[in-house]
Amino acid sequence: MLTSIRGLTAVSIAACAALSSVPAVAQDDESGSSVEVSANVALTSEYRFRGVDLSGGELAVQGGVDVAHESGFYIGTWASSLDETTVGFGSTELDIYGGWGGDVAEGVAIDVGVIQYIYPDAGPGDFDYTEFYGSVGFTFGPAEATLGAAYAPKQDSLLGFDNTYVYADLGIGVPDTPISVTGHVGYTDGFLTFTNDGKAFDWSIGAEASIPDTPLTLGVAYTGAEGDIPVGAYDFVDDAFVFTLSASF
């Protein structure tokens, strides 16, 4: 059984968008605190989450809005088109999340929160579910590394099962260029895979470049997943190059 959760290569990528995007609006309230509102849009050759293809190998349109307070608390929403024939959860995924992120020491940041995955036009049945996430990020020179985990407890939409996901991300900026290279590896154990035994590894390696004097970023990644895939099933985890054009405001 495959149930979609988005990605960040790992969950906190989307949730951290409120912290990393360019702020569109900054407002001061009477107490002097600051609120930042940011938005992001993307066109990607496939919607891949944790190595799994959720758009049937077709283009996907994605976007979201985040609101972050200077205290570190944030809320946000993000959506992507799906292939309703292949995936079976309708044509849209909508994520709503909230949490806290911030520096706890020089070069060390944490992010914790909860995310609700919603499939507003899915057919009969219970598909929406909740996941909790947390990560620790480290910055050293032009490099950033993240270790994280996400846990979906037992709930009706998971047929009474749970799911655990752990991952590591690495990004390195190329000095004096707008280019960075990225790597990711993750492991799923539980209900949220498309494998016979409920276990799967996923990985990606890629690069992205910001386009000068624009809010645009162009990225490419080679990604996939490994697991005990049912014979004759659609190969959701076949290795593929994924191209993405995104913008943050």
TrEMBL record:
The signal peptide, as residue positions, is 1-26
Q: Does the keyword Signal apply?
A: yes
InterPro entries hit by this protein: CHP02001 (IPR010239)
Query: Which Pfam families does the record match to this protein?
Result: Gcw_chp
Q: Highest taxon of the source?
A: Bacteria
Keywords on record: Signal
NCBIfam families tied to this protein: gcw_chp
Its protein name is: Uncharacterized protein
